[in-house]
Amino acid sequence: MRLALTLTAAIALAGCATTFEVPDAPVANLPDSAAPAANRSVSAGEQMMQRVATRIEPIAEDVCRQETGQTRGCDFVLQIDRSGGAPNAFQTIGSDGRPLIVFNEAMLRTIRNDNEIAFIMGHEAGHQIAGHLARRQSQVGLGGLAGAILGGVIGLDQQQSAEIGAQIGGRAYSQSFELEADVLGTYIAERAGYDPVDGAASFSRFRGSNSVLSTHPPGQQRYSTVVATAQRIAAQRAQGLTPTIPRN
């Protein structure tokens, strides 16, 4: 455990911060009423996903091009994972180099409404916009190197220490990345005409962990970040401004 905490601190100090500003959010009460949809079929979930995608995808791609200057890296593809497992959605890169946003069947069965699926799509697009896959891989390499060095210093097996370091390196900024993607997802969903705060109520079903080594922050922290971001957007619109995504 001491090795893990030491490595986490070392990697955090050596790593890079988030690109987009995550607000210091006052605690917002996470709704307890966001129960999953009951008895929805996968086909009905697919229809919802496709309906929402017609509005979210062009906004996400436009935000991606504006923030990254890329074109192909912003050509999102939606896929469904039919391999089973707990409700999940994630972002990855396809064999053709295009970014994928993937929902598994269990997630499609439990989504409550269009706001939830819009926010989740925006969040996953946010991972691509912020370059999280490449940045996480860099942290894995840094963690492996730090683990090997520290293991040698304190007399542990260097191979084992390197493997532990790589695992910790992959998680060192995961929570920050999730909050950053939540901010981007809030802007994307709002621009597409959805309610990201209602969409983020799904965190009551996926609350996360308080552990420093957890890949996801606690649900209440994530929900509070979305609420604060939505309030910032609303304040800009009230002044007649087009909301812009703040960078660090």
UniProtKB/TrEMBL annotation:
Cofactor annotation: Zn(2+)
PANTHER family referenced in this protein's UniProt entry, alphabetically: METALLOENDOPEPTIDASE OMA1, METALLOENDOPEPTIDASE OMA1, MITOCHONDRIAL
Domain Peptidase M48: 55-226
Pfam families tied to this protein: Peptidase_M48 (PF01435)
Cofactor stoichiometry and binding remark: Binds 1 zinc ion per subunit.
Segment forming the signal sequence: 1-19
Keyword Zinc part of the UniProt annotation: yes
EC number(s) on file: 3.4.24.-
Keyword Metal-binding carried by entry: yes
Record gene name: loiP_3
Recorded GO CC terms: membrane
Name of the molecule in the record: Metalloprotease LoiP
Species: Pontivivens insulae
GO molecular function annotations of the record: metal ion binding; metalloendopeptidase activity
Gene3D superfamilies per record: Metalloproteases ('zincins'), catalytic domain (3.30.2010.10)
GO BP field: proteolysis involved in protein catabolic process
Superkingdom of source: Bacteria
Class of this enzyme: hydrolase
Family membership noted in the UniProt record: Belongs to the peptidase M48 family.
Keywords: Hydrolase, Metal-binding, Metalloprotease, Protease, Signal, Zinc
